[in-house]
């Protein structure tokens, strides 16, 4: 390129500047983001929760068998090595001399800037005698001295030095490359080419290819694509899956197959131990030939899962395999939930009637199986077995008590302290305190539901085909917090009646208070007093409120059905009278009108189903994008037999229990710490009327803590668009402007014709 020069770094000093900057840009942010945090914080956290979670398997495994984590040590070594390299390069740079300095002839001649011409000539003679090549001096140094002398004595050279910084005048633009010159040296060309070829033609393709091969095998949720295909096939094949079939399909995941997952193991002893466990379980179907559900790896996973649900003791050689299998279950069940939802969306969008959607029972069984796998309980076992020190033997004393009928966790919490203590009299004091601590840590979630139509003038008016948004606000508290508040409210209401000396009667040994009268079982004498004084101030228990709401809904639906039947009977009688006065032609017209109405209804239903499908798919994409930005660490789950610390997560969805259909796709709530607001969207029904739906909140970890609330929708006819609607104002104004312009053009043409006539 003319007027330009490219120079490599002959001495290698410039390369150190570049290398120092490059290493610093990597080491400084990497230290901030990758330096291991305080490892003692995890030990402190475990000590703080030992009172509640001390008997959990995951807690004991973490304490007794701490997993050797080499990653923090490797991170520290790499970062320290990077800092050592950075400091060495910085020291090297600080010791290098500046090569590119401004040219100063006084410095070359070792003179002060104010030297006279005589002093310059005298110094030039002395240096010439010293560095002249004929007298054995340095030729390069002599040329620099001659150039400096000319710059200070010759007028043209002095002018060039003052204007361009060089006695020779303007020079070509020089570009320095911060690479040592030996890289482009012909002697080292073969070595450099080998390094480039190894880096860009071998290492880089291998790294990218291995990453790509691994990524295409997994979905976005780190589930094997083959597993998703297996689940899709069997869910489509079995529309209504019971629990046995669901466990069989779950165990067919490729994550348990050593051929597709290196972490899965297969031992020769499995051929002896697995048949022994099958004989002990005794309820495994081995006759059907459905690969891969009948493959050895799938059979092994199924047996280990069933033995876990039955809380059976298995051989030590299989414990590690069982723990590996259980850790995979929550993510695999979530994938199965996603598969069922996708098939439901596809079924609603298909025109063929042969494509049948999975039932709502299949979806709910997946959620129940997740609870069972985390807690290590079978389907119809009591939720009280989730608590410590309560086994099958002493459970009969609790559930079959003559005075108290305790079936759920809420029933046990709602008892008086004295009654609960007498009910659990078979427990020692320290065990009773541990049970109360665990019971108080269980979650208590409340739902506030509000339905509306967004982006509409009247958001509370739900019309046919509109997009309904159900805003659900979830509030998470512990059992201890909830009933401590109720205890304080009851104490404030009963303070004028009771003495202050009895205020501390209801303190439990577990560290949290319990009100004297439970939310479900309240003595009649206690109920009547506040009802007489302030009937509206006393809240009813949640279960009773739900029963009353459901009863009111049933009564309303029955009256509505009766009114519809009366209307139909009236219309029927009127039609019978009118039919006598009609002719055959009118009957044909009516038949054609009915067919056209049916066709319109079918088209409307197809449009609604397509809209529903697009809506649910867009909602799922938004949910995944939103969940990726939030932390999924909520609260640890109390699970006696689960080998890994599990976080509290929930499923939230709307369904029609009467029709057994899913209204909105399940939203996986993974960020509920204290409060969370969730929007469930779905298109309104295609016909006006009253609709009874149900909002479900299901835990993926606890049994017996699901929440159910009714949702009533009143759908009206869509309002007709008025003629003078604001959206048509622009078009009308445009038409008026067009008419004005046309009139102006006509008048302009008339004026031109008149002028031509005058001429």
Automatic annotation (TrEMBL):
Compositionally biased residues, Basic residues: 517-535
Gene3D superfamilies xref list: 5' to 3' exonuclease, C-terminal subdomain, C2 domain, DnaJ domain, Sec63 N-terminal domain-like domain
Keywords assigned by UniProt, alphabetized: Chaperone, Coiled coil, Endoplasmic reticulum, Membrane, Phosphoprotein, Protein transport, Repeat, Transmembrane, Transmembrane helix, Transport
Biased composition (Acidic residues): 732-759
SUPFAM superfamilies reported in the protein's UniProt record: Chaperone J-domain, E set domains, Sec63 N-terminal domain-like
Domain J residue range list: 104-165
UniProt-annotated location(s): Endoplasmic reticulum membrane
Descriptive protein name: Translocation protein SEC63 homolog
Basic and acidic residues: compositionally biased ranges: 581-607
Biological process (GO), any one: post-translational protein targeting to endoplasmic reticulum membrane
Source organism of the structure: Cricetulus griseus (Chinese hamster)
Subunit structure: The ER translocon complex consists of channel-forming core components SEC61A1, SEC61B and SEC61G and different auxiliary components such as SEC62 and SEC63.
